[in-house]
Amino acid sequence: MQQELRKKSNWSMLLVLALCFTFVLSACGSNKDGDASAASSPAGSSDGGSAAAESGKLVEWGWDKSGHDKLMAEFSKNHPHIQVEYVEVSAKDYLKKIQTSIASGSDLPDIIWAEAAQRGAIYELNVLDDLGAAPYSFDKSALLDFEVPLLTNSKDQLVALDQQVAPGAVAYKRELAKQYLGTDDPDQLASMFKSWDDFAQKGKEVYDKSGGKVTMFASLMDAYTILSNQMTKPFIDGVSVNKTDMLGIFGQLQKLRDMNNEAKLSMWSPSWSASYSQNSVIFYPAANWSPEFVIKPNDKSSSGAWGLTVPPSGGFTYGGTSIGIWKGSKQKDAAWTYLKGMYGSAEGADVSFKGMQAILPLKSVFDDTSKLASGPDAFFGGQDLNKFWIEKVFPSIKAKPVTKYDQDVYSASEIVLQTMAQDMKFDADKAFEKWSEELKKNHPELTIE
Amino acid sequence: MAKTTGIARNDKWPYLFITPYFLFYAVFSLFPILFTLYLSFTDWDLFGNNNFTGFDNYRQLFMHDKFFWKSLGNVLLFIVCYLPALVLFGMLIASLIESRLIRRKTFFRLSFFSAYMTTPVAIGIIFALLFDWQGGFINNLFIELGWIHEKVNWLGSSGWARWIVILMIFWKNLGYFIMFYTAGMASIDTSIYEAAQIDGASAKSVFFRITIPLLKPINLFLVITSIIGGLQLVEEPMLLYSGWASGTSMTGGPDGSVFTPIWYMFDASFSGSSFKYGKGAAIAYSTFLFIALFSLMGIKWLNRDGDSK
Questions:
Q1: Which residues of A touch B273 (CB under 8 A)?
Q2: Backbone angles phi, psi at B86, to 5 degrees
Q3: CB-based contact, B67 to chain A, within 8 Å
Q4: In chain A, where are the structural domains located?
Q5: Cβ-defined contact of B279 to A96 (cutoff 8 Å)
Q6: pLDDT band with cut points at 50, 70 and 90 for residue A34
Q7: Which one, A408, B31, B75, B126, has least CB within 10 Å?
Q8: Which CATH code for domain A167-318+375-448?
Q9: Interchain CB distance below 8 Å, A422 and B153
């Protein structure tokens, strides 16, 4: 009896100790997070005003530490005295972190990133400095023309530089293209579709021929990504909604749905990712970052199975991250040296290309494009991807000005296209009406002409 | 004797003891509550507006905002659907577990309660994966069983989306209700049951005439806290439609069918490109008004037969 009691008390003691241990460990974990945020709040102290441009400790928030490290290795060769304290913030949380820092009045990092969908919002939050003014005096004509609207805020100031060009086109599965479209050559495919209507028509044939098993796109959102990024006018001009273009896009999407051009998956969902390795979808929108981050991870084993070609109506910009300098930074000179030396000059082009094979959207870079070839890529059947982007996509590439409503436009479109995919009676007009309703929920000031 | 003089000398000690907690409460609870009230009267958004606008936000919400009323209607509908089911099944299962029919009582109690212990975030994601249109387990199972011939888009239809949310909340809270009823039933004097047995009462009579009335205080507590919690519902539906598991994120679900007031608050204040803190604060306080209203109504209705024991 006594022994039993002792055993019981021993076990309970052990359990209590184990619980305490877990609590301590979890506290250790959160302390690390605490340290990181504590380190990021105050900006690094300035290193004396005179040598300010060449030395200093900058704070940067970003979501790609490994990429950053590679670039820093190259950058430090030119500017050894500039140090960067890099704080990892995931892309999903980035806007919220900026937002809460502004609301609470705490410091922002010297170098701020703005992901494609959030660019307009971050520019509008008025935290990025005008790079065209002193002390930066960056000449925007050095940039490729289509880039400028992506980096300009509503006050017409250039507030950021792009990390790299982000051209978009379509990736296709060679086997399916050969089987259902007759060819897997990128140029022949591009010339097969003179317009989106041609594409939709061909898509219907593919669907019928395969008995419903193979479709051109995985979802309406895939097609929307291409169509919306091919616009040249912004979604919303001031507070006036671009009804003509949006109705046009919804009309095109309705046609694609009616002609069975899509597989009704949800873009970015696990089943959508799985479709890359199944033989059910031919085309996916693809940017220059897609092979590394989307296509190869989702379809590991099929080397040589993919190709890139230009969609109807030409190339577009897709994604990309722009980088700017905080208005309240205490080291603007050093920050500018960093920004220019990474993304804004011939020197920066060198650093970016050597470190990350990234091509900057500067006119000077494209004077001699022979150096930019990436070599044949076995995964893409021997296509030279950089050559493809430069020769086939850039001539027709389009970009539109960013607005602070971009993220909400995307969410509203997602909701509307979900309904469109399943309800055959949901047409473009109803889609536009629903879409405007969703937008006006949080933005009652918008007007529709 | 020493006590009476002692009180005058020592009356600072009680205050000193509660000061740390009260300071903490004042800074982290009281101040935010009052500041949010102030915010609800402004139009503060991070794009530069910061003006005192009085009741504009409330007027906009109550008169011109169909999303707010829809979200309120949704949560009330959910409560009406799952609360009676929870009370009924909770009591039934609790009495089953407590009866002599079940041997491994602890196992059953733990199984039901473990659903309540799961974090709402995980519940939302799990249900999103279960009910996924193309790859979800439910669709595949039903097709295997021959119950349906074509995969149903559960998460894409407003009717089904509501039922999924109701199911999630019911599944999660059943264990909680069972636990309370078990405790309540354990506290009922067995002599009452014995007396009933002697008088020849059937099991059904015992259940309806003895168990349920004696569980009234517990019912009162559970119903009121469920109303309060139910009106604040946000995590499960938000994670269901967050896009983590199902790919597409839909604020409010298809056609706003699972939109909730607090989700609206999140949406207005923190998501996308709308940083309207003033509006979010107004939504929060409006929801609070409705919570207070419905809780009072609940209490009045449950105590309608006069003072409860």
A1: 118, 120-121, 124, 404-408
A2: -65, -45
A3: yes
A4: 50-165+320-367, 167-318+375-448
A5: no
A6: very low
A7: B31
A8: 3.40.190.10
A9: yes
